[in-house]
Amino acid sequence: MFHTLVNKLAQICDFEPKGNTVTALAVIWRDGRICYVFASNRRRTPALKNARIGLKAFLDILKSNLEAETRDSDEVMERRLLGEILSRNNVRVRSYLTALAKELSTCIKKCDAAGVEGMEARDAMTRLAQMLPDPNKDGQKGDNYINSMIRFIEAIRENSTSPLRRYISARAAEDDKMAKGGSWSTVRHVSGRLVAYQYAAQTPVQAHHIWADTELFRDFNIASVRSSQSYPAEALNLNPMTTEAIMHRAPGCTQAQVDAYKQHAAALQQYLLDSKLERQWKTRALDPIVHAEMLLHDWLARTEGGIQAYRFFHNWRYIGTSKPVCRLCQEYFHVIATPVRFRSGHPNTYLNWRLPDMYYVGGEDSAITTSSIERARRDWCEILGRMKGRVYAAVVQVLEEKVSDKKAHDSNTYTDKVSGVKEMDRLAGWLEHVQLG
Ligand SMILES: [Zn+2]
């Protein structure tokens, strides 16, 4: 329950789409008080302040209910919190509504009007489309707009056990088989994201009952960690790597394995892997950042008390995130063997990723010495080296599996999987060329 709560709090601070506001959050003791501390991928000072204000407003709703002589019902509390979330997340919510308006009308046209099921689905979706809140009419943060949002989310939820849901799910699964981003899968995905806000309001209400007698929602501070600075990435100045070169560099290979990898790489060329790799390499601007969860972990490790259990609420060493932890962050936490736990991860990798900054630890007189710089540099290189080894092993395994998978799947599925390989490929190339600044 506590992990879910922390993840939900991180989620409601992730105001905008596209990844900049992805947030990690922990509940710690600081200066004798509970402190909700968070970090985001790319937020400047005013945006961090805005997020702190948003989180405080949210937690204050729970606090005032605990302090009230007569407490409000859970239902009233959930609506109040949901309203707060929706008004703070209005940029993201608006992007969901725009997508939904477009794709619902496409899906309505695609319903099979010859069958009863299709007719019912069309009618249900038409009703939903008519309920779509209109930000132009009601203002984007006005009470009317928020209330119509809440009613709309409730309507989606009511449909979640209806035949409409099955109808959409079946077609969304078809969408996924062909390619990502079809109308049906967008409707399913976006509806799910909107309903997730309702869960994000329910969890803290339950939590404020469970921990009513603690300081958790009664006496707290809120703090934020600065996002990482831009860092010049040099990898893309180099020539793009080929699949064969990447496989060839896998650590600890025997000659027989190298020969086998060469064949694998050749087999993958019918899917134009190398030219896709080259295109991605040349067209993408690289601006790596320290991901939010690494930023927060790094901040905790460097400040007084570090990541020792006593520093966390109830000794629960946990960092929650608004999104599942990416593959590279998982590898990093594995390599540094942290006792802190995180939300479960996903296998995706992102090019715009980097290690936390190096910090030099001074000697007895706190002066930065050549040896302390060397030590920090050595630690940094060791982490990077171990990560590279693990990622290479994973890349080669994926490539091998794809080659052996080839016969078992039809071409669509296979092509789709190869695009995942491409992602790993680019990543491996980048890691190989990362240089110390
Ligand atoms: Zn990450």
From TrEMBL:
It comes from the Eukaryota. InterPro entries: OTT_1508_deam-like (IPR027796). It holds the Pfam family OTT_1508_deam. This is Uncharacterized protein. It comes from Chaetomidium leptoderma.
